[in-house]
Amino acid sequence: MSTAASNGPRIQDVRVTKHEIIAHLGDGRVISVPLAWSWRLSKATPAQRANFRLIGSGQGVHWPEIDEDISVEGMLHGIPARRPKFANAGPGRMQSPSKRAVR
Length: 103
Known about the structure:
Number of domains: 1
Shape: globular
Largest sheet: 3 strands, antiparallel
CATH architecture: 2-Layer Sandwich
Low-confidence stretches: 1-5, 98-103
CATH class: Alpha Beta
Distance between the termini: 51 Å
């Protein structure tokens, strides 16, 4: 059984430079988006940027240390990552408006 998703573009490799996120696709294409599209990757160290794994058989990439996910479809369609609408609740902690209201 085949699904449409299995026929879509797949990432084989990815690298992050000072200015771009570059993905090599299984069909030979190389696509890139500005690093600024991912605020988490923009703030990450080179070591954190290098620590990634492909997810969904290449449908996307996950950076576990910074909890960032980027899909091949998002890159192809020009969809940058959105910043969450949370207030900083201290170093390393985010707090949603609903959690703040409970306190």
